[in-house]
Known about the structure:
73% helix
Amino acid sequence: MSIDTERAQQEKVEPPPGPVSLVRAELPRWAPYGILVASLVVVGVLLAVTGGFSIGLFVFLSAVLFGLATYLVSRVVEGARKATDRLVTIVVTVAFLIALIPLISVVITVVTNGLARFDAAFFTQSMRGVGGANDLAGGGYHAIMGTLIITALAAVMSIPVGVLTAVYLVEYGSKSRLARAVTFFVDVMTGIPSIVAGLFSFALFALFFGPSIRLGFAGSVALSVLMIPVVVRSTEEMLKIVPNELREAAYALGTPKWRTILKVVIPTSIAGIASGITLAIARVIGETAPLLIAVGITTGLNLNPFANRMATLPVFAYYSYAAPGVPREPFIDRAWTSALVLIIIVLVLNLVARLVARVFAPKTR
């Protein structure tokens, strides 16, 4: 036997007995739930013994203990990588639940208090002649109609201007000086306080009709000042994500630019545009300060936005809470119901936006 053969036999490594597993051990599916229950029990017992029990402290300490315990157990069984992944998942989930707390609290509070006057009278009666023995009567019909009319006028003025401005910035303006200036002013308008828009609209109409003027249309102008920047920015971002290949394909077929925008670009991004418009409407429909200055309040129904004052739900809720009559309770109930109706209107707008996006979105099959 040669020296090389003997050396090869000596250096030959025997394979380990049995199959080699390439997958580390994993915790069973019930383990996180068991650790969570154990954390809740341990923290609850400790707080009960120390006598300092409170809901906030209980939830906070339970979350901390649950995260640490899960990390340690997972690190021992599954390794550092999987343990870190579980810890980050817990942190993200807890942050999401914390963000939901104010939303759920607001919804529960508004629904609970708003159901007191969520009846037929609230949707069919105004506040004209309500007082004294009639305090339990009256409703927000005039405010609902005023909100819908003023917001609809603002949308009619804002949506075409905002969409066409975004089309110019993306499709025509490119990096020209005018496009950069428009983008700058749109960004500035996005951050202006709502009361500034109300003062602007009031000052504009006061120049022509005097300082005592209060019109529903003036409120629409104030809301459009707040709505246009949101429509422009959201529509601009949606148009930017349309692939340039679609535009180039249309140009290669001899389609003019305006027709490409109308038939290709906008239908492709219609879902995002509809969502942005809905967000813009939801942004302004609950504004109180500009309507308080430009529109005012009235107790009767006025369906003409170009004559006299109009009532709106935000202003109606504000006056019902800030300057209630005697007894106070019926006015507070109407304020909560007005807030509930506003939430329902915004919810309906979101559903309509989703329906529009689904109907007009380009078909992939």
